[in-house]
Amino acid sequence: MDHGVRQEIARSIQEQIRDLRLEIVSMEEQSRTVDLDQPIGRLSRMDSLTSQGIALSTLNKAKVRLTRLKIALQRVEDHEFGFCENCGEEIAFKRLRALPESTLCIHCAA
Ligand SMILES: [Zn+2]
Q1: From ligand 1's centre to the CA of 82, what distance in Å?
Q2: Could you tell me the pTM of the whole model?
Q3: Phi, psi for 28 (deg, rounded to 5)
């Protein structure tokens, strides 16, 4: 993997980190708003707990992905970056650009 490719992936990671941070901030704001403005009676308690649970799990997934992206950004210049942890093959550029946190090639991830 040459330097230009790594730089392009690094840029893509930085963009995704920025977008994800904005998403997390807006999700956190939304979950607070829901808590404060929750109309009593329209949603059953069960429904509101379920939707809150879904919102929280989406938020947690976003945070986990953010952490993985930060690790990927630190590793992008490493020699092993971009190679599958399982089979050692190079991970396709398109896959790395879309999902820079991948540590498995598309075949091993499937
Ligand atoms: Zn593989």
Answers
A1: 11
A2: 0.80
A3: -65, -40
